[in-house]
Known about the structure:
The chain is α/β, with parallel strands linked by helices. The strands form ten sheets. Strands 33-32-31-30-27-34-35-36 form an eight-stranded mixed β-sheet, with helices on both faces. Helix 25 (about 685-710) runs antiparallel to helix 32 (about 845-885), helix 28 packs across helix 32 and helix 50 packs antiparallel against helix 51 (about 1290-1310). The relative contact order is 0.10.
Amino acid sequence: MKKKSKIILGVCIVAAVLIGISIWNAWFSATKIAFVNFQTIQQGSISKANDNSFIKLSEVSLANLDRLSNYDMVFVNGMGLRIVEEQRQQIQQAADKGVPVYTSMATNPTNNICNLDSVQQNLIRRYLSNGGKTNYRNMLNYIRKAIDGKTYSTTEMEDPVERPSDMLYHAGISNPDDELEFLTVTDYEKFMKDNNLYKEGARRIIITGQMADATDLIKALEKEGYNVYPVQSMTRFMSFIDEVQPDAVINMAHGRMGDRMVDYLKTKNILLFAPLTINSLVDEWENDPLGMSGGFMSQSIVTPEIDGAIRPFALFAQYEDKEGLRHSYAIPERLKTFVSTINNYLNLKTKPNKDKKVAIYYYKGPGQNALTAAGMEVVPSLYNLLLRMKQEGYNVSGLPANAQELAKMIQAQGAVFNSYAEGAFDEFMKNGNPELITKEQYESWVKESLRPEKYAEVVAADGEFPGNYMVTSDGCLGVARLQFGNIVLMPQNAAGSGDNSFQVVHGTNAAPPHTYIASYLWMQHGFKADALIHFGTHGSLEFTPKKQVALCSNDWPDRLVGAVPHFYLYSIGNVGEGMMAKRRSYATLQSYLTPPFLESSVRGIYRELMEKIKIYNNSAKENKEQESLAIKALTVKMGIHRDLGLDSITNKPYTEDEIARIENFAEELATEKITGQLYTMGVPYEPERITSSVYAMATEPIAYSLLALDKQRGKATNTINKHRSLFTQQYLNPARQLVEKLITNPAQATDELICRTAGITPQELAKARQIEADRNAPKGMMAMMMAAAAKQDKDDKNKKMGGHPAQQSEKSPHEKIPESMKEAMKKMGTNMDPGKAPKEYSKEDIEFSLAVTEVERTIKNIGNYKNALLTSPEEELASLMNALKGGYTTPTPGGDPIANPNTLPTGRNMYAINAEATPTESAWEKGIALAKQTIDTYKQRHNDSIPRKVSYTLWSSEFIETGGATIAQVLYMLGVEPVRDAFGRVSDLKLIPSAELGRPRIDVVVQTSGQLRDLAASRLFLINRAVEMAAGAKDDKYENQVATSVIEAERVLTEKGLSPKDAREISTFRIFGGINGMYGTGIQEMVESGDRWENESELATTYLNNMGAYYGSEKNWEVFQKFAFEAALTRTDVVVQPRQSNTWGALSLDHVYEFMGGMNLAVRNVTGKDPDAYLSDYRNRNNMKMQELKEAVGVESRTTILNPVYIKEKMKGGASSASEFAEVITNTYGWNVMKPAAIDKELWNNIYNVYVKDELNLGVKKYFEQQNPAALEEMTAVMLESARKGLWKASEEQVAELSKLHTEIVNNYRPSCSGFVCDNAKLRDYIASKADAPTAAQYKENISKIREAKASGNDKGVVMKKEEMNQTTEEQTNTLSNVAVGIAVIIVLLALILFVRKRRKSSQM
């Protein structure tokens, strides 16, 4: 009985406990609320409002959605929510289990998961949309009481308080957590005056955007003496700004402010700053190599640039509170720098020009080589800038009388030498008069600018101050500079350190040497520059590795630019690399013109051939064979068969298709666009070059559009497609005649002319305009939000389609939203289309409208094109002068002005595209067409078989200018297509069914330049996902080459010693790039150091190492796994390289042989087979095509370096122009190494005949001797090295003549002293052996004078070979002796970490 009582008592106790627990859970336990995908600022505001200890808030990451069932309420922010189906089901399962789920602002209908009733939804929506402490607190109590059903520890709830959507705000004075709101500027200013915050006559700054808590920023600016106006407004912002009349605007950006804001900034000439809010904890961000990526980067950096925003400086980041919730606050260390930056820019407005100090960095080739910048004649351009500054009142005392004298001063006191030129270095240190920096000065600057751990990296890499170079006997460090009054000219330093190995070691220290750091710290703290200018495309600062954007205080550009206003003269043709300068060195870009364009004028050379082809095309069948043999004889005589890969058997006639290829090749040569003399800043093109450039811009768009219309009408036959000469006759020539008339009289560009030209009626013209307007109008979510805003304020013009892309920001859900927009928001996720569905047009209608509007746009703008070219030189100088006065620089798209005339006029600040929207719809269609062309071309060359794997190179400028067409090719090869969300962004992918694809899925391997990697990391992740999807595709009708390649890669990796698990994971890796965050491949220096390697396999091994970092996922970002790149290259049959610009080609741009050639070499060594090599030619947007590399080299060489018209145009220029010739010869050698089949003996013979024998009688030797002897030294050295290594089978006579010319130039003008000329021992011995004894002795002596310090035993350490140091190479003239300061030696450190390829071409990577 007793036992039974105990049992009963125990049961009662347990029951009581269980009842107690149930009661506690039901009425007293904490209400746990989860937030998914919420912006930190809103989540932090809700957390701050929570004063109830029984309400617990938590952030749940997308990786932990399976934990949602443990919460009492779940909030999901659907705006930009990127989840896969499995994650979506996890949210749905929590809702199905009874957990209350509320999803707000779902941009994807499938993500709109909500199980609250309509009353609950309405209240929660109103609390959230109005925001503020009171609403958030009431919402939390409402959730606890009404939704979670717990009455304990709840206060009386109030209905949502309707707060104004347009107001000024300020933190409370006594309690900073208080939110003070003001409806008018008058009320706000009264508050400021009442609290002693208003300063009469002080500068005014508006702060807008709500991505972080701006309290500390506001307080810091007020402390600096500014009147600060924080504005929160979605529809009345322009009214506020009109009333405040600010001196600057700070936008904590998440999207565009709009075209109306751009117009305002231009009119008022005030600056727009866009500091960044980091979407992670401070420590996480500092250790993140990306810094920022994806949609957050697009909204925070990319779209604000379209408004002309500057200085994307990371200012705010996340901090965790005691509950683990995150809040976004200003980072104290960076707030100080940012406020100083604002001060420095605004001080430019008031400080007299005569008192401003400006530092100008230029880039110069080694020794006596010229100053270089892409497309620019540098010294005259620099001189024109200095002259303009003098006219504007700057102190430029001591400026020489002309540009020629300035060039002499720079060459004598500012020459740059490689590290091996120690004799010249010693001479400079004795006579060059560098700025000397003491240890005390340097260390004080380091303490101010660098964290101790950053400086420790420098010491570890370069030793204690002063290091090994630019050092005096008493321990000072020299800084090179040439000073004219308050303007200092400084050569661009080397930015790397390392040893003699060309193979970069993964994970090595990337700290620059003392000389590099000292130059910039002296600029900041010693010279105390008011502004910094980098002169011409481009320097090295923006290419130092690590974080891609949103730099931190551990990134070198952030520290070395400091708070100094930075302006960068950048070629309009190189928008991709311009974005690096803009985002990684905080530069306001000032675009400058490319060289002018003209036709090749080689038609006469091929007239006889074209006549024979014409006879063949018109001859009877029985005569075709004889006519074909006649064509073949002439084709072989002219060497065209080599360019096209045709046979030379004299008695075997060419087929009709082969003759068509020859005809089209000759026609392409005749119509090819070439560049003229280099551009000189401030000097308009010659009148005939303005005309020829307008022809280049306008003729083809009209001609191809008229062809498209005739195809629709059935008037154009396939004959036009087959015979390019017919297109020229029927379309191109008439279009040119029309352009000629409109250049003379632009007023003729009427609707009547457009209709007559296009063969359409006015009604058809109106129809075409309407179709284009409908197609370009915002759709879906964007249309809804824009319509709602327009309803609220009809006068708001922020959303109009104008000169800038209309892009809608993803608004923070906590902002005070106007009523009309709130109503629209209710529909999001359930009814994405607020009105009727957008009108659908047929493919024919769209093609018709595109053709007609292209004709209209071109005809109406011909006069504008001409005027823009004429006025751009003055616009550039005026814009830079305005920027130096603290003025606004107008934004502009960038790129090839021929392909996109909207880049004109220049003198503007370039912006890019939103990577998240790529590939664009247009790029997708073009990518499909080019991928099909690639397959067809390969099939024609390989007995109808298709490629198993295609390698693609991704470059930033191509990506920006084409909208991601190469990425589209990659996706289509894999048989995967993009899926777009409500904002038009490519946020997902889907497999193209095998039957629809109609072919096997073809595998890909991608190498990315560092620039593309930084611009579009999310697109690399997209490709990675596409590879995995294609590899896993089931039930394919055709063989899946992707799956087969994955199996092969896994086998290779296993054989290399990897574990089966690792091999399986790595087998799908397909996206690779430079290790340690490098921007180039690091291979060029090795290729051009011919005495350091004997076998191409050595080059291939280095390439595979240096480009072996994986960039396909955030998890494995920049991971280097030996053999991964090699395994990915197995089975590669084709190598593809983009070419989107008319400003460069495979021979004129070194990066093409570096990337495409490097990949070709690597594939050949991995597979044992030389792959096909094709260029994706995007230059003509109306006629994009694939072109085999050998053919492209043939076109380029015949129309440029072997073309007398081109040579004479370039010879109008000076030293920089001469350097371009040398660059092409060096690149020809590079190609000969990387892909011998691309460069034949005959090309070298032709180069020899033109530049050594001067068979065209152009006086080339005299030109080089007068303008740039160093260029001729380089050219002859490269040709001799090609012969020495057996790349060019030169005759003894050719070698002897080359050796004679080379030694003559070296002995007469001193060694230049580039690597080819001075640092290749085997080549020097080879050259000397070919010369007579006296000449050889003098040659050796002159080389020795440059290098003789080597024998002194001085240990100067090991440096990067690519870079240079300044040397004094001439005795000072009387003019020079008046110059106070010389230009010092800049050390070049050999290629361990090669951050940037310094050749001044517009790399377009």
